[in-house]
Design goal:
The protein is of the alpha+beta class. It is 50% helix and 19% strand. It comes from Desulfobaculum xiamenense.
Length: 338
């Protein structure tokens, strides 16, 4: 019996053993094929997995596994990337990093007919992003061109409902919003999985052949608006002043009226009270009224007074003008009283 711990190994048998090379190659290939099913979805992407070409599932950002090709395949569209479509113009690049972009006109896309049968050159940019990756990939073919065609059709419809004056001047923002809503409605009917972010008008002007005439018309309209604004400003400045003056005159007239009424009422009341006293004691009242009147006359320094004695009064000629005697009034008054 062999000793404990001893192992008899037939090394000649192992030396003669040969593992088939094709099995090694097949095993390595199988491992590589299975490893090819690993994929990573970026933070701004969504994974759309297809099994034998048909949609199977949708995966979120991060590492994932699928059955390798040809069983399953995956697409990872960027759902947060803002994409843009240019209608009526094309970006041809920049000469330098700091210089603005260069654009090329595409008149077959930009020339449109307005509601008042005028031609206008409209160049605009559409910004959109993917709202439903499955619908974006499987419901519509050639998504970029589809969005561009819908944008051009929607803008033509909106321009056709507006007059050229509104499109060139005051209603540009309304045109942009209306075209965006029109685009979104059509794309939703298509099930395109696209959300329109913005429609931006880049350049809106009449055709080059008549642009000078339109500039003259626009200048005339600006002058008209300026004259109207100046007239409104003058009116707004003048009317409040006139209204204020009128109100002041009315207030003064009302105050004068009330003053005269109160004064007349006071004099009437005073006259009635005097009349009552007079009727009670006619002689006394008559004497008092005479004394009060003489007190007012004699106490007035501006009134010229001539005091004559009784003898002088008897010798005075009736209706004799007494003004020349004013110089001697003081001397004549020393010897008598009125």
């Amino acid at each position: 019996m062999p000793n404990i711990g001893e192992v008899n190994v037939d090394w000649d048998r192992f030396r003669n053993f040969r593992f088939p090379a094709w099995k090694i190659v097949f095993g390595v290939a199988a491992l590589l094929w299975l490893a090819s099913g690993i994929y990573i979805v970026g933070p701004d992407e969504v994974g759309v997995v297809q099994r034998f070409g048909a949609f199977d599932r949708q995966t979120e950002p991060g590492p994932h596994y699928r059955w390798p090709f040809p069983v399953e395949s995956v697409q990872t569209p960027k759902v947060t990337q803002i994409r843009r479509v240019e209608v009526g113009l094309r970006t041809v690049g920049r000469r330098a990093a700091s210089s603005p972009s260069q654009f090329q006109d595409v008149p077959q896309e930009s020339l449109m007919l307005t509601g008042d049968e005028n031609i206008v050159d409209v160049q605009f940019i559409v910004q959109y992003l993917i709202s439903d990756a499955r619908a974006f990939l499987f419901n519509v073919k050639d998504q970029h061109e589809t969005v561009k065609s819908v944008a051009e059709a929607a803008m033509r419809e909106v321009i056709g409902r507006n007059r050229i004056d509104a499109v060139l001047t005051s209603d540009k923002l309304a045109v942009q919003n209306e075209a965006r809503d029109q685009m979104q409605e059509v794309l939703d009917r298509y099930g395109s999985g696209v959300r329109v972010v913005a429609v931006q008008l880049q350049n809106v002007h009449p055709p080059k052949e008549v642009i000078d005439a339109f500039k003259d018309v626009a200048s005339a309209r600006e002058d008209k608006s300026r004259f109207i604004n100046e007239a409104d400003a003058y009116r707004n400045d003048l009317l409040p002043k006139a209204r204020g003056q009128a109100a002041a005159l009315l207030n003064q007239a009302e105050a004068y009226k009330q003053t005269q009424i109160k004064r007349a009422e006071g004099e009437a009341a005073r006259f009635v009270s005097v009349l009552k006293e007079y009727e009670k004691a006619k002689d006394v009242t008559r004497k008092r009224m005479y004394l009060e009147t003489m007190e007012k006359i004699l106490s007035n320094p501006e009134m010229e007074k001539i005091i004559m004695s009784d003898e002088a009064l008897r010798g005075a000629v009736p209706y004799l003008p007494l003004s020349p005697l004013g110089g001697r009034s003081a001397a004549a008054g020393k010897g008598g009283t009125n």
